[in-house]
Amino acid sequence: MSSETYRQIAADLKLDTGAFGQCFDSRKFREAVERDVRQGGEMGVNSTPAFFINGRFLSGAQPFDAFRTIIEDEIQ
């Protein structure tokens, strides 16, 4: 996506567009974000949302029962 697309998303979300633009332009967090994306990819994450519950991967928007099943399984 282009920087203008990100700026429009920020505006649509009613974020402080000045602060967003300054942070975006500074690229201050670029390395950390790229590192997180690489790590996620190595762990099998290819979309959001993605969850890890005690090391068990749950991908996508899931109903509460999907979380409950894994959590109950893990605490037994």
Would you give an account of this structure?
This protein folds into two domains: 1-42, no CATH class; 46-76, no CATH class. It is built from four helices and two strands. It has helices at residues 3-12, 17-26, 30-42, 64-75, and strands at 50-53, 56-59. It has a two-stranded antiparallel sheet with strand order 1-2. Helix 1 (3-12) packs antiparallel against helix 2. The longest helix is centred in the middle third of the chain and has 13 residues, at 30-42.
Quick rundown:
By secondary structure, this protein is mainly α. It has four helices and two strands; from the N terminus they run H-H-H-E-E-H.
Helix content: 55-70%
Question: How many E-type strands?
Answer: 2
Number of domains: 2
Measured distance between first and last alpha carbons = 44 Å
Number of helices: 4
Strand order of the largest sheet: 1-2
How would you state the average pLDDT, rounded? 95
Structural class: mainly alpha
Beta-strand percentage range: 5-15%
Instruction: List segments where confidence is low: pLDDT < 50 over at least 5 consecutive residues.
Output: none
Q: Which key phrases capture this entry?
A:
2 domains; mainly alpha; two-stranded antiparallel ribbon; 4 helices; 76 residues; 2 strands
Helices and strands in order, then pairings?
Elements (H helix, E strand, L loop, with lengths): L2 H10 L4 H10 L3 H13 L7 E4 L2 E4 L4 H12 L1
Antiparallel strand pairs: 1-2
Helix pairs in contact: 1-2
